[in-house]
Specification:
Strand content: 15-25%
CATH class: Alpha Beta
Number of helices: 5
CATH superfamily: NAD(P)-binding Rossmann-like Domain
Distance between the termini: 21 Å
Order of helices and strands: HEHEEEHEHEH
Helix content: 25-40%
Length: 136
């Protein structure tokens, strides 16, 4: 993680669209209710999920490559830690990402360093709801 806690608020304020990698169709899962919370607080939230769904009226793409590049600047990831290297490789191959946010319980130091070495701001093991509530 290369973003200090003290910069979370300004980081979040700098982006109006957040793409959620792995936005679930199950409203009981954090990968659904966290994006719903953030959307309620004013952000435009776009999701990726391999299966089509319309739960919560989110715009969902089957893959990150289908998401318009201007919407891939801030990516919030809900994937297990062991999947983060392939997520980082995908992000780097597509380009356009400025912030990689790994939700609470998700981290992969080597993959994070790779993203950082390519100019991406990285936040790991942090929940957007908790950080919003602590900073706003």
């Amino acid at each position: 993680m290369n973003v200090p806690d003290s910069e979370f608020k300004s980081l979040l304020q700098s982006y109006k669209t957040i793409t959620v990698y792995g936005l679930s169709n199950d409203p009981s899962k954090p990968s659904h209710y966290v994006p719903a919370f953030i959307r309620e607080k004013g952000w435009n939230v776009i999701g990726t999920y391999p299966k089509e769904h319309s739960v919560g009226d989110f715009q969902i793409y089957k893959s990150l490559k289908e998401v318009p590049i201007e919407s891939r600047k801030f990516i919030d990831v809900f994937r297990s830690s062991d999947k983060i290297p392939e997520v980082v490789d995908e992000i780097l191959s597509l380009g356009g990402t400025e912030v990689l946010w790994l939700q609470l319980g998700i981290s992969h130091p080597e993959a994070e360093k790779k993203a950082e070495a390519n100019g991406i701001k990285v936040v790991s093991n942090r929940c957007l709801i908790i950080e919003y509530n602590n900073n706003y």
